[in-house]
Amino acid sequence: MGTCDGRVVIITGAARGIGREHALAFAREGAKVVVNDIGVELDGSGGGAGPAGDVVQQIRDEGGEAIVNGADVTDFAQTGQAVEQALEAFGRLDVVVNNAGFVRDRMFVSCSEEEWDAVVRVHLKGHFCLARNAAEHWRGESKAGKAVDARIINTSSGAGLQGSIGQSSYSAAKAGIAALTLIQAAELGRYGITSNAIAPSARTRMTEGVFSEMMAKPEEGFDAMDPANISPLVVWLGSAESKDVSGQVFELSGGEISIADGWRSGPAIDKGARWAPDEIGAAIHELMNKATPAQKVYGT
Known about the structure:
By secondary structure, the protein is α/β, with parallel strands linked by helices. It has one domain (8-259): NAD(P)-binding Rossmann-like Domain (Rossmann fold, 3-Layer(aba) Sandwich). It has helices at residues 17-28, 50-61, 76-90, 113-143, 158-162, 168-188, 205-210, 212-215, 231-238, 277-290; strands at 8-11, 32-36, 65-69, 95-97, 150-155, 193-201, 249-253, 256-259. A hairpin with a 2-residue loop joins strand 7 (249-253) and strand 8. The longest helix is centred in the middle third of the chain and has 31 residues, at 113-143.
């Protein structure tokens, strides 16, 4: 018996890297997998179904069930069709894993409008489109009196939690994804839907070029940056066992799992009346001395 026997999952960006490992891991735990990918290069250029087809074939060769989906995750209609494809092929949908993304790293003052829009669109809007279509389906099932035990699993990043030099658009989008996860969890729980996010550290096409030394594969011993290290938690979050876990952002690196401690109200000073501008400076410095310092931005 697998952890996800009989469950149906759509995974975006599932042809390579972490997404590929998610697809294989879900299938090995009994899930039926919709392998979504448009086959683009790291900067978003090109495209093709070949890589996704290779993952589907591997799953089938191992005795699992999987199909290819080529929806553009930023296209609301296409992602709606992806939900319909899962329902037509497998009769149900239980899990959405939002993984697709790419980078166009630039220092903020060098980032073009086109680059900013492209990165935010793929990551942030891409997380909206599929989950929104899936949530509409699940809400309809719930309102019809059917039992729903559904999962949304989003992909944020340490860059979104702490910021990262040279990645303003990527970091902003990933921060938005973390906030979106909290809202989804708060709004959708009544329908039997949980939402969680991961912030993984692993070897992918995105990270190899930027952190080449850290991401290098060791000659022997545990490969801490192997993308397959990320998938067990994602599979568990997609299972029925995780129904009481929602609204969390998990950081993962090697064999370590932690829960990110997000924004929360800190020290306060209440004057009980309107502040004068010349009073603000002393108050702010007092608060900063009391507050727990934020983690350093990556790259500083």
